[in-house]
Amino acid sequence: MKKIKIIIVDDHAIVRHGICQALITEPNFEIVADIGCGKEAIDLALLHRPDVIIMDISMPDFNGIEATKEIITNNPNIKVIALSMHVEKIYVMGMLNAGASGYILKSDSMSLFYMKHHSPNGHSASLALPFL
In 3D, which of 97, 108, 15, 94 has the Cα closest to residue 54? Predict the structure, then answer.
């Protein structure tokens, strides 16, 4: 069975580490990169062609909205999920207009990440991102 490839993008290393630790328990997931800036996310999305990118919004150099727009332009099959502390409509709509498939708050429970998800190859995995 092909694993669901995931890139995690957040400028806070401890956040990336926590997400990685939570997701590596799922045998159908493969974390192909965890990085701290939007510009690098664009490059690694082209290199790895992940199925899912979990994207922070507020980052130096290239923010999550800019990076998402560029990633989706280059490969519309990648699902980008915003993971942010921002609850304001401008950020939510910015990400969704850039092509994100969903938006999760950092203050939400990790249980939001776990639910049934069907991967591009038709297999099931537990990634509770209801937006995929």
Answer: 15
Taking every pair of Cα atoms in the chain, the longest distance, rounded to a whole number of angstroms, is: 39
SS3 state at 64: helix
pLDDT of residue 1 exceeding 90: no
Cβ burial of 114 (10 Å; 0-12, 13-18, 19+) is middle
C-alpha distances (whole Å) from 64 to each of 69, 75, 115, 124 are: 8, 16, 24, 28
Does 80 have pLDDT greater than 70? yes
71 three-state secondary structure? helix
Give the pLDDT mean for 57-82.
Answer: 93
